[in-house]
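Task: fold both queries, return tokens.
Query 1:
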Amino acid sequence: MTEFWESSFIEKQTMWGFEPTDSAIVTKDFFLENNIKDILIPGIGYGRNAKVFIDNGINVTGIEISKTAIDLARQNGLDMGIFHGSVTDMPFDNKRYDAIFCHALLHLLNKRERDQFIQDCYNQLKPNGYMIFTTVSKKAPMFGKGKELDTDYFEVMEGLKMFFYDSDSIKQDFEKYGLVESTGIDEPNKHMKNTPSINFILVKCKKKV
């Protein structure tokens, strides 16, 4: 997966632009309402979602596998701690965070990696902390395309494997981690106005005391 993201990163950042996702904006509002001050963003990329949190006084630490992405974040003035590595190697520190926000990464992992990643995120939450994931839905137009590798898991294009969630698989993966709610959210491509939105599910969990 490292090679795929490094080789296509510049093209991807051009495609997505620098505006934050709607998911990040909604999550920022939720974090402010709940007095969240210190968050971890696994898969922070080049920081387009991090800025909306930083601009609202929330301290951000990131994890990113692509050195190119980290360099681009720095070039765009994002001064924050970013661990260079894969989320499958979490944790990178012993810190506990008020919250974790992870956009469009979970579905890129296989079953074993997803289970471990969710557990690792939960472990890095403070008591009563929140973790919020956005992950691709079975309603997305890419669902069922390409080579089927497992149930709801497809290689949609060469080197890009995706697991597509629905309400049942959300419950299965998150119920034991304090699942609060899951809601559909359609993410427009704000950088390319005439492209279709992607159907995501926003998953919110709270760590039990």
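Query 1 returned. Query 2:
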Amino acid sequence: MLQVVVIGAGQAGLSAAYHLQRQGLRPARDFLVLDANEGPGGAWRHRWDSLTFGTAHNIHDLPAMELGTPDPTEPASSVVARYYGDYEQEFGLEVRRPVRVQKVEGFDGGLTVHTDKGTWETRLLINATGTWDRPYWPYYPGRELFRGRQLHTHDFVSADEFRSKRVVVVGAGTSAVQFLLKLADAGARTTWVTRRPPSFTDRTFDSEWGRDVERRVHSRTKAGLPPSSVVSVTGLPLTAQYRAGIESGVLRSRGPLRRITETGIELDGGVMVPADVILWATGFRAALDHLQPLKLREPGGGIRMDGVTVLKDERVLLVGYGASASTLGATRAGRAAANQAVRRLGSMEQQEALAG
């Protein structure tokens, strides 16, 4: 039986793996990292090529190996995939991929991890699956009637394919703002719809801001509520580029969406807007379906946490969830999960020694 299985080799999973190894656990012997992707990079390897390193959110260093200063014009997907791959090799983490976890079940003394490549038994689980595999599509009346194209952030490739198209962008987060600017530059005619007025802020997005965001998100997960959207906590940085977008009218919300028609949308207030494309920049949800057999969720729909520990089953540690979904939070959460796992394993060994 393994001591720990880590599911996911993104920022949080690699951080956890590094700290497990640092505390004496051996990769592929004492702990195993499973990843569903074909290669390194986590969710970043799926980002659209036009999202360059210079325009991406801050990508924080993994422990003991700096990212350095990549070319800001290089696609962020390439930068991160290379960085994560170098990291895995540097520390010999022996990530198994592609391995897709199907479900996790509990038994006396441990957990069984069922995958498309076999089954492993483990004492503890560090889950670092993030959100990329669960794009969120909110329902609006008439969505199934629209005769144009609908796509989600998850499936976006390039703004150039929407040249001269009438594109409605739904969502109030950073992705929506970046799409609007890119689409406008590519010659698309855009309409921005949001449930609430966009939350632009001129606060500095520094490490103290990041910690404040984590504290606010943690208050929800500690209460067993689902994490709220990122932008509702962070706001949108009022950069020079965004200010220019507001002044040009590209980054001005038309308000809430009421319904979708065959040829466009109806805004709150009855205004009709024709559209060829609806781009849903409406975020993601935590990819935790494989944990359903463990019945971890609370009546409020979330998972109640104490730090990174799931209170309903202390054999499960969640990283990249809630407050640790950012790259800064994910790195620290990986360390916290590894430390907690080692403490938990020590406690389990003591109990077994006393029982024996």
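Both queries returned. Flag for query 2: The two ends are 18 Å apart (CA to CA).
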